[in-house]
Structures are given as C-alpha cells and as structure tokens.
Amino acid sequence: MSTLQLEQLKQTAIQSRRVPLAADQRLIVLQKLQGRLEIDSLFEVFCRELEKQIDISRLIWEHNEISHIVRRGGSTDYRQTFSIKFAQSPLGMLQYCTPYKLDTDEISLIHTYHRLLAGPLSNAIEYNRVRNLALLDNLTGLNNRTSFEQDIRQSIALTERQDHGLILMIFDMDNFKQVNDTYGHLDGDKVLRRFALLLKQAIRASDRCYRLGGDEFAVLLTPATRESAQLVNERLKTLISKDALLTSHNISSSVGCSIYQQGDNSTSMFERADRGMYRHKNSRRRPA
Fold this sequence. Notes:
- By secondary structure, the protein is α+β, with helices and mostly antiparallel strands.
- It contains 10 helices and 8 strands.
- It has a 4-stranded antiparallel β-sheet. Strands 6-7-5-8 form a 4-stranded antiparallel β-sheet.
- Strand 3 (about 80-85) and strand 4 form a beta hairpin.
- Helix 6 runs antiparallel to helix 7 and helix 7 packs across helix 8 (about 225-240).
C-alpha cells in the first residue's frame, strides 16, 4: 500500500469519528469534567475526551505567565493557539500541536470542548488559589510551617527513591528582638519582610524557603550537596551586608544544616538542623 493510500485511509478514519457533539454527548463530557478540582486530573480527562475526536501530539496550557505541559509529545509543524474564558474571565491559552493542519470543523469542535472545559477549569483555578493561600505566610509571602511540613516529607520520599541529595537549612535572625523592643512591631515586620526577600534571592529556583514562625526560617535545597548550603549561606550574608535596613538594625543570622541520611524522617532532620543553628548562635555570642 502506498504512502498516499495510507494517508487517505488515515484521513477517512479521522473524518468518520469527527462528528459534531450532540447535546447528550456534551452532557456526558461535562459530567466527567465537573467536580475535578486538581488541574492535572481535569486536563487528563479533557484530553482523553478530545482525543476521541482529534489527534493531539502536544498540548500546552499557558496561565499567569507559566507554561504547563498538559500532553507531552513531540512538536510538529502544525500549531494553533486558542484563548479560553469563563464569564469573560481569561483562563489562559491552549496551544495545540497536531500531526496535520486543523480544518474549520475541527476548530469548531475544539471550541465546543473549550466551552465545556471553561467552568470546571475556573473552579479548579480558584480552588488551587485558595489552597495555596492557606500554605503562605501572610506577612512575608513565603511558604508557611504547614507547607514546610508537607514539603519536607515529600522531599524525603523523593530523595529515598532518586538519591539526588536533600539539605535542610534553619535560619534564626540575630538581634531581631531588640528591633521589636526598641522600635515596635511595625518596624519589626519591615525587617522580617526584608529578610524573607533576601532569603528568597539567595536560593535557586529549585529550592523552597519558609517562615516557620517568629524570626525563624527554613530552606529546603534539592538537589543539593554540602557546597550548595555553603553557597546559599554566603549569598545571604552578602545580601544582608549590603542592605541598608538590616544593617541599620545590626541584623544578621545564625544557621544550622542537616543533610539527608538513610533512615531520616522530617523530625530527625529538623532536630539536627535546629541544634546546629543554636550551636552557631551561641558561638557567635561568646566573646572572642
């Protein structure tokens, strides 16, 4: 069979399954999409249903300047991007890569699926926004202690499987209490926000930082080596030394680290890092 005949058979198969969605079919698809608040799960169902009608090589969802790969696959010469909205609220862009050029019927069909997706996607976005707010520290915008406890357990589990290195760093601000006592809590809050900003600048994109409470902060480095922790600490010290607000209040930080060891859990890692931080703080208090 020639290449041309194979292509004709393929197109015939595509045409045979690509029919407009009847009202009862739209209802079935909508029922499958509704109630799914995890965005990955929602798009998995969406792709499974759409691929009954159209071949998709790759699908990317762009939202809030972040690209999410919905369907992994090779790029093709045929790309088309669609905006998606719900009640006039933008929900991002969907970029399709297909093995052939989409015709007007296929584009119309995609718009139908997008209308079915829009409501559930809007709900999922809002659900994830609210859930993420519950994991943020209101004052500094860093992740909070609840987020830290979830993330360190997940990071330990991942390290046990992949052995790519995990380091926990605990930071405690030095001389912070005197800022609150002398200048009040408003100035103290400014200092906390500035320290949090500098800590975030000192880490890599793959790392995460947290405010655990008061003037205590944590960083999870992964993948990581001992040198990774040293670099973060040196960067933070340099940033603090150049910051007018923190230097005016004589702010510095004490730090303790723990490197993941076989058999560790979140408690054992935290306790080692915390002990190391207090040893560092006490050594800085001793007269030379």
